[in-house]
Structures are given as C-alpha cells and as structure tokens.
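Tutorial, part two.
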Amino acid sequence: MNNITFDKVLKVHEVINQTILTMKKIYLSLLSLVVCLGLKAQVDVTFNVDMNEVDITTDSLHLVGNFNDPDYDGTDYPTDYNAAYPNWTVTAISMTDGDGDGVFTAVLSLNPARYEFKFINGNDWPYNEIVPSACTVEVSGNGNRQIMVGDAPISYNVCYGACAACGENAVRFRLDVSTIDLDLDGNYAEPGEDISPDGIHVAGDFQAWDPGASVLQDWNNDNIWEATYSVGTATSISFKYINGNTWDFPNENISGACGGGDGNRLEAITSTNNVLNVYCWSSCDPCTQPVPVTFAVDMNAACADLTPGMFLMGTVTDWSNGAAMSDDDGDLIYTLTLNVAPSTTPYEYKFRIGTGGWEGIGNRMLTVSAGDPIELPQVCFNSSEPCGPTYPAADVTFQCMPGTATIGAGESIWIMGNFTEPQWQSGSVQLTDGDGDGIWSATVPQVCLTELFYKFAIGSAQGTFSLEETADFSSIGGCGVDNGTFSDNRKLVRTSADPVTVCWTFDTCVSCLDISVEENEVVANLQVFPVPADEVLQVAFNSPVSQKLNIRLVNTFGQIVLEENAGMVTGQRTISLNTSDIAAGVYSLVISNGMSVQTRTISVK
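Running the prediction step on this input gives:
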C-alpha cells in the first residue's frame, strides 16, 4: 500500500474543485463576452414633441414606429431588436409631460438603424398626426417621419404636425449626386471616389457654415441625398452642399439662377415647412441622367504586345490614367461601357496600349444626348473604320529628301512612327545617304502593321531632334491624317505582302522632290510614250552631261512602284520600263540626278 492519507486525498479534491470553479467562471465570462459582441450597442434616443399649439385629447400621447424590427425581417430581440417596442402598436410607448410645459417626451434604447415613426394624439389610429412632406420618409411616400440612429445618443425635437420646433421654419434639403464624376473615370457617384466616404452634408448661414454638422442621407440608394433641418425664423438662407464633412473635398460652386454670390445657393423660405427642388450637384437644374455608352476597338491589325492592357483615354474618362478596357472572349476586340453625362459639347477620346501606345490619328469625337444606351460601331485601332484585310509582315523602306530643310553637321534624317519599337521618338530609326544622291533611306524590316503612321525628323541622335515635321499633311496634299491638337502624321497603307518603298520631301506632300525644274532640267528633250502606257513605257531623253540618273514611277500615295537605276548616262538614251504589273492609274515619272529632279505625269491603263 502507498502511504496516502485521507487528508491528502481531501486536499486533492479541494484543488480539483477550485480549478473547476475557476474554469466555469472563465467560460461564463467568455460566453458573456460573445453574447455582448453579438448584440449591437444600444443608445438612448429622446423624442420630444411640443403640443402647446395642439388640443390634447383626453387620452395619453403615444409614439409608434418600427422600433423593434426596422428591416421587417421578422427577427426579434435579443437576436435583433427590442421586443419592448413592438412595431406600430399604438399604446405600447406612452409619452409624458413631467414638468407640465406642454412638451411630451419618450426615451427609447435603440440599436443603430433607420427608423420610421409618428406621434399619435390619443390611443388609436384616427388620432395620428399628419406629417408635412418636408419631413416624411419620401415626399410622395407613406407619411411617416424618419430618424437615423448612430452610435451616440440623440434628441428629436419638433412641434406636433410640423418638421421643426414650434415657431421655427423647416427645410427639406435635397441633392442629386448621380452625375458627380470627380475622378473622371466615366463611372458616376462612386462611394469613396466621387462621393466622399464621410457622405454629403449641407452648410449654410442657418448653422454657422459648419461643413460637418448637417449630414444628408441617401435613404433608398437613388443618389438623392436629403435631410430636414430647422432654419429658425429666417426668410431666406444661403447655403451649399458639401461632398464630405470638411471644406477639403471639392464642394459646389454655384453661378446660375439659384446662386446668391460667392458660389453659394440662395433660397427664399416661404412657409413653415419647405421642400427644396432636387437640383443636380453644382447646378441650378435637375440632373440629366448619364447614358450607358459602349466603346469597342479591334486590335487584330495592331500587331502589338497587348499585355500592358488597353485603355480608353480622353475627356470621356481622363487624359492621364484613362479607363481599362476588357477582352473577355479573347478575340482581340476590347470593349468598355461607361455612363456618360449628356452634353452639347462633344467628348474627345482615343484608345491607348498600356502607358504609351497612343493612336496616331486625331482625337475621336462623341456627342451624347439624353436617351437610350449607345453602342458605338466597332473600329480598328488607329482608324475610324472597321479593320480591313491584314497581310504578312514585310520590309518597308522610307526615303526622304531634305528639300528646304537644313541638315546640320553630325545630323541625319530619322523616321519614327507607330511601327518603331518603342513607338515614335524613343524608337526612331536613322536614315542614311551613302551614295550622296540627296535621298536619305532606311529599311524597317518585317513591319506587321497594315496602317502605318509616321514622321521624319532631323537630329544628331535617336530621339534628339533639332527639327520635326509639322506640316498639315491631311490638307496640303492628302499624304497624312489629322492628329487633333498635335501636328499631322503621315499615313501609309500596305495593300499586299510585298515590300514597300515610299519617298517624300521633308515636311511636304511632294514625292521625291516632285518639283518641275524648267530652268535647270535634269535631261533635255524628254519624251514619254505611249500614253497611256500598257505593257512598256518608253522614256527618251538627252543627257547633256555625264551624270548618274535614277528613274522612278511614284503613285499618288508617295509609294515607289517601279525604279530603274540608269547608272552614268551621257547623250541620247531611251529607257524601257515594264508597266505590265502596275495597276491602272495616274503616276509621277521622276528623273533624278541627286541634285535636281524632273517630273512628268503619266497614266497607265
């Protein structure tokens, strides 16, 4: 046997019992904490109604409302609300006038929520008050008062059947925020972005211009923020609506017919209970609701890395960040639907790849009128039309003659466009004039794009230019497209999988210095036959001096369709050009010796 005495066993039992008691206390404490955390903290709400201007019935005054179950979901206290205040039971909540001053009071302990209620001058429904529209749930609603209970005790003080204390005037402030788009992303009234996280307030001379004292509520999520406040005995009020609860967040600046100067609104107070018109934010007019507009751009012909994403830029969003577009089905057609406010001023916009892949055309224009949703036609990137056929990548040779432009020491002509990598200035390609014939040239290999937008520039290094082309190519000769507020870009459309060569005079639509030089002809006695040409075009001339001649046919787009290097020529010569594979049309015959050119317009049938 072990030497365990009865006293030792008793002590062990005492320790065990004490431990169990301690554990029970801890468990009950935790359970109590869990229950407390599960319930919403209640606050005292004091309802005061002044009956001095009303004949009181012989029965007591009552307060009725949905205080037990404001959301009408059938869940009662303690899970939800207080069963001591059954919904809309006339005799459940009595109001008393302890000091005999004619003001009857009831104090309720309520959880934070929005409640509807009214006072009853008696103990049955025929005696309920008629609540003015200035403080009902909605102007055309059910005639109940409403109150928003937060996490701090509040008091509600009115005259019976009125919206303010006896002898004071009440105003129902109402503001439509549905067209606020402060971040210019095309989505309106977004909480935290367009609408301050602190909500909408009203400030004015009736409350000492305190931007955070008078909050409005959007009771039914219709973007109409409203609340009723006493303005004392004022016959007019100066005020404005505040986006937030300080003067920091952008607030209204009123200059229309409802303005009273200094950017404030001015309203006449004409009765005891006033309901203001629902005006649009920062306007004296009702809001015209935004129209859903769907934008679509086809990127199949863009030949670009689209992993940086596609963006809609412009006044319809903003020119800096824009709004991201999506391609949910992977067909390379990116779309975006935005709510756009109707406006007589056209919106301007462009599509952009990532942070720098801008379209080379001018700004797109959009006018939005009130009405049905708008679905814009699908367009090709860099075009106002749907995408046409695409072709395999091919080499494109760009040639440029300086014309009147000066190329300084150490400088070259450069080509930049939507096909250089990276695009435009930072990816520009250097042209060279190795044979000294005055024609600078560079070939960009395997260009994938069908529509190319580009410019020539003069400078000493890539992206470091002393002169860029600024001509209005879209109007002086049709060799480019309008680029909005920026200078025009040249445009080249590839029409096949064959290599392409273009040649222009710097800052002009003159192809290969396509200038008639009658006083200093390159060759004498120039004859071209037959006209129109069919299979072969004969070019006969007399070269008075030994010179290196180049003969080209250039189409109206500045593209070289046929080229013959005649080498060193002296005296009478006839050059045969095979025109059998050339499309019918009008062309320029260009004869150049590197210093001057001579042209003749010919046709091919």
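Residues 393 and 574 are 37 Å apart (CA to CA). In part three we will examine how such features are distributed along the chain.
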